Amino acid sequence: MTHEAVLSDIGVMLHKVLGEYGLDEVEVTMDSTFHDDLELESIDLVALAGQLEERYGSRVNFAEFIAELELDQIIALTVGQLVDYVVGALDGGN
Questions:
Q1: Three-state SS for 61?
Q2: Which residue ranges does the record assign to the Carrier domain (predicted)?
Q3: pTM to 2 decimal places
Q4: Given Cys at both, which of 8, 11, 13, 72 links 51, Cβ 3.0 to 4.6 Å?
């Protein structure tokens, strides 16, 4: 799966989460950060994890991916980093 396709999928997932806050018009790019740009809370990341597993299956384990990061890395996490992880996981690299 391409980075563009995964970014599109994740964008749809994030707009579902953001829509609950009336923020479904926010632009989601590879450089968007989950904390500063999208202002997601931890519960939102749990919802995103569920959507990722529903879409991609058990090969994409968001909780495992996050668990390997330090707190400052989680705070600075970008959509692009998640896209890279998903593409790698689907290609069997993770």
A1: coil
A2: 4-90
A3: 0.92
A4: 13
